[in-house]
Design brief:
elongated; four-stranded mixed sheet; Glutaredoxin; 4 strands; Peroxidase, domain 1; alpha+beta; 61% helix
């Protein structure tokens, strides 16, 4: 929990500095994250405690130079490294994407269901509901979840709407057992 709070604070600070300096830090962090995720060796060097801080800094400095990122992003990553908090980088990035989405007026979310695709009418209805409830457009992706019997589960930020048959059975079971 503490790490999540720290990561969010870093993300907010870096994002706000990016806005002030007219730098799309989210796009730059996306580029960096894609490079890191594409190399198991780079992930190993950065996130495992097998290597010294100096070795990690040498590697990340070379990577940052080749990516031609802004000094703000380079210094932010090096600061995380220096403070021995580079392990927070994925959470910082995730928080930054959420903040960027909110700044642009939308939220990302997932609809889970048991079928191969979603009923378009339901998707339209849920987007309208979320727009009215949260005041932001929802960009939703659909994922088939083999563990669901029927219905849909929608997750947007920390809001979850569970209209699955499994959830209804769990509620009924709880009601029967607690009465």
């Amino acid at each position: 929990m503490k790490e999540a709070i720290i990561a969010k604070a870093y993300a907010n600070s870096i994002f706000e500095l990016g806005l002030q300096n007219k730098i799309d830090v989210t796009a730059e962090f996306t580029t960096l994250t894609e490079v890191i995720n594409s190399s198991n060796d780079l992930e190993t060097v950065l996130f495992l405690d097998v290597f010294t801080i100096e070795e990690k800094q040498a590697v990340i400095t070379d990577v940052l130079a080749k990516l031609d990122l802004s000094p703000l992003v380079k210094n932010s990553v090096l600061f995380l490294m220096q403070e021995q908090r580079i392990g927070l980088l994925p959470m910082v990035y995730k928080n930054m994407v959420v903040k960027d989405d909110h700044e642009k007026g939308f939220l990302r979310g997932v609809i889970e269901g048991s079928g191969d695709s979603i009923d378009p009418e339901f998707e339209t209805h849920i987007k309208s509901y979320l727009k009215n409830k949260l005041g932001l457009e929802a960009k939703l992706t659909y994922e088939k979840n083999k563990d669901l019997t029927a219905g849909y589960r929608v997750t947007v930020d920390d809001l979850q709407l569970d209209a699955t048959l499994d959830n209804q059975f769990d509620k009924l079971k709880s009601e029967i057992l607690n009465s």
